[in-house]
Amino acid sequence: MTTFKYRFSTNEVHKSRGPLRPFWMQNIDNSSSDEASLKQLDMEYFASDSVHSDDDDSDTDSEGIEAKKSSRARSRKVELEDEGDFSNQDDSEEDDDDPIVTSDKLDRVLHLLEDTIAEDPNIELQRAHEFNCGCVTFDGQPCIRQFSDEEIFDLRISMQGLNEGQKDLILLAIFHTSMNTSELIFTKGKKKSELKECIRSRNIYLVKSLRVCASAFRFLHVVSKNKVSAVQQWYREHGLTPRRKKSGGQVGPKPLQYEDITRIFRFIQNFAEEHALVLPSRLPSSKGSYLSLLPSSLSKSVVWRDHYKEALRATEFRAAPLGTFKRLWQQLCPEIIVGLPTIDLCQECRQNNSLIVKTVKCDEDYKLSTVRKQLAHLQGVKVQQDLYRSQVADAKLVVGSGNMKLGRNAPCSRQCDMHYSFDFGHQLHYPSNPVQPSPLYFLQPRKCGLFGVCCEGVPQQINYLIDEGMAMTHSSNATISYLHHFFETYGLGEESLSLHCDNCAGQNKSRYLVFYLIWRTIHGLHKNISLNYMVAGHTKFSPDWCFGLLKQKLRRSPVSCLQDIARLTHQSTVSEVNLAQLVGSEAQEVYVPLYDWQSFLGEYFIPLIGFKKFHQFRISSEEPGVVYSSQSPTDQEQEFNLLRTPDTFPPLELPQQTPPPGLDARRQWYLYEKIREFCSDEGADHTCPKPTVPNPDYCAGLEEISSTAQKKRKANCKV
User: Which of 114, 375, 579, 580 could be stapled to 566 by a disulfide with Cβ–Cβ 3.0 to 4.6 Å?
Assistant: First the structure.
């Protein structure tokens, strides 16, 4: 038999109470059993005057409580004695004065307590099965038998996970619906219509709309009798209000009333209607949509000091403190935020909102026209974003139905539709250090471009790391080359392709990108392709999320070379959302070739008239060279045939490669002389190697020195 040794101290009982164990079981160790020690423990716990409830309120006098304690202690002692004799074992510890308690007897004592939970779920389930409340109100059986053992176990575990304040609220709600607190009641017997004064309120205990006795109620809710009495007394005196203990801290002398809180909420709403910019899409720093963006020149403190307090100065209402004002703002109006200075906003939204603010003194027709203009713009943005969300959701369903991973897959090997998003990110600089040395702040480290293609269905993003010596321009040749490499190396082999990108002209929104997609459908690399451009100013999508995760990791990690950036890209997420693909090394070793797609495709296709005004393009292999365009997903499509010569298609062969430009001599020597000292020993030879070409600044200095010397010699000869 497993035994435990317990050092009992009534002064430390209340202070060491744990969340899942009764406080008299906190310091139990292995030892042998002793019947006298167990009985002594039982008598000290149930009869000691030093163990008392934490509740300050009670509806009974001290003498009645002591009498009930003594009676309960005697009855429970008899129950323990009826359980049988304890086996005696030798104490193996050095301290022989400590009382010894066996584990099985402790479990039996635990059954007698209503406001404790056992650590072992099996023991707690057994307690739920063996508990007997002592009443016979349920068809001659205890009322707790109305519930199954699993229901009793779940309810007790749920109540144990709540804090004392949450338990008080639950008990107050139950007593609010079951207690009769009226001052007058009808008499029983023959004179039923007569009223008399209510001397003592009647308590009815309900659990899941079933009536139970007081003992079963306390056991199910894991509360003591004093706890129930204190909450009932509070409800009689204060009604349905949050309960506060007498020793539970102090409340401010002037707490805010409901009218004060309502007044703050209305002020914030009215202030936002006048000064805020309404956005139909979310921001990277916010999870919600349809935000109201205040100007970056404002802050919550400025609004409170210069507007809120000034508005209440001429009234008799008092102003809330700054901390309370900010807390209520965050709780009641989380969609109203202050914009950051560098946030990317829609220019049309800003202009329309400025017009709306300026039309305060204009006629109603002009006001209505400006509001309708902004509403039409927001509705168009919402249509575009709904299309993006629906295509992403469909892609997740496709990936969820089959085992798909990014990798080399044959073109059109899967009969499905997949969605991808791509964009350029802000360039990175290396070497870098979280504790940035002050001289590095004024220098120009080596640059690294960033281009990402995100497959939201998986989800994973391939981040193309472009060294400064490779092609650093964001031209359409670079965009198409990276997309082509992605489809060949990481594509899922889908038949139908859906693409989303921002509306940046020259890099993403280019006629050569449309030519390239037509080229893919002509040669059977895809059967159907849809290209969708997001509205300018409302272009926050998945690649921005992955770029943000990568930059958060880089901001806190030292970087010395391009391989460090690739390693940190993989480590930026635990679930491997970000993956790295090097375009080339620092030594101009090419891993992702750059092709001259503009010269290659320009010979076979003609430009699309009015290309920049369209946002949706649809291409099919059944109609080679034909593209269907529209300004919105809800608009009617227009058909265009972009082949320069009918029945003349571009070949399947790839265009001519463009060699990397590399670094000029002046840049190589700058990195070697100014930046190399900030690299680690392993990365210095990769990021800032010693150049093999002469230093142009040094050569220019020698030429200047030689020309000056020649002039001096000529002057001496003349003399």
Answer: 580
CA torsion through residues 329, 330, 335, 336, sign:
positive
The tens digit of pLDDT for each residue in 408-424 reads 999 999 999 999 999 99
| Torsion angle in degrees (nearest 10) through CA of 310, 313, 318, 324 | 10
d(CA 449, CA 428): 6
Residues 51 and 10: beta-carbon distance below 8 Å: yes
- Quick: pLDDT tens for 537-583: 888 888 988 998 999 899 889 999 999 999 999 999 888 899 999 99
310 to 256, 269, 315: CA distances (angstroms): 19, 17, 10
For 180, which DSSP code?
Answer: B
Enumerate residues 6+ apart whose C-beta is below 8 A from 220. Answer: 144, 147, 152, 155, 156, 159, 207, 212
Query: How much is the pTM?
Result: 0.59
Parallel, antiparallel, or unpaired: how do β-strands 184-186 and 626-630 relate? unpaired
* pLDDT of 715: 60
Q: How far is CA 226 from CA 57, 70, 200, 223, 236, in A?
A: 8, 15, 18, 8, 15
Structure tokens at 682: 């392993």
- Three-state SS for 81-131 is HHCCCCCCCCCCCCCCCCCEEEHHHHHHHHHCCCCCCCCCHHHHHHHHHHC
Burial (CB count within 10 angstroms: exposed 0-12, middle 13-18, buried 19+), residue 364: exposed
Q: Where are the alpha helices (DSSP H) in 585-695?
A: 597-602, 665-670, 684-687
Place of tokens 């007058």: 184
The DSSP secondary-structure symbol of 485 reads H
Of 114-118, 376-380, 389-393, 416-420, the least confident: 114-118
